[in-house]
Amino acid sequence: MSGGTREVQATFWLLDAPGSLLLQSRSQPDGVGLGTFGADGSPTIYRKPVAALRSQTFIADAKEVRSRTFLSHIRHATATEPRLENTHPFEQHGRLFAHNGIVGDLDGVRRRARRARRHARGRGPPPRRAARRAYDYGTGASRGRPCSRRAAMPRSVRLP
Prior knowledge:
The protein has helices at residues 11-16, 21-24, 56-64, 106-120, 129-139, 149-152, and strands at 8-9, 32-37, 43-48, 66-67, 70-74, 90-92, 95-97.
């Protein structure tokens, strides 16, 4: 959820709405996570491998936290156990990431992401369609469907 240019609270969407994350956690009981960004742009993450409705810390934080951007996630474990390292969102280099499903062939995803970064920096050939898809997965640009080079690979991208 985005508050645009100002910090907002997400209490309604996280706790009070008819389809709130709290209520959805009844059927997705294996993890809850909330990522936000501070005024300086630094990410903060709370995550725990339990249902949102069982986490008093999540409930208390959801009532208080303010941010311009929220990334929340609940989990129903299918392929891996409910453990902290399997609970979203994840943070890397100041970015937050969450997904639904299984991300397979991580070595291939990393290879394609490196190729896409080189191209975005003007130091390599255009990425193949698979690399654009890998970039899309990381940004949520097209929910895994191929999209145009312009939408998938903006020139202004600055990845580490």
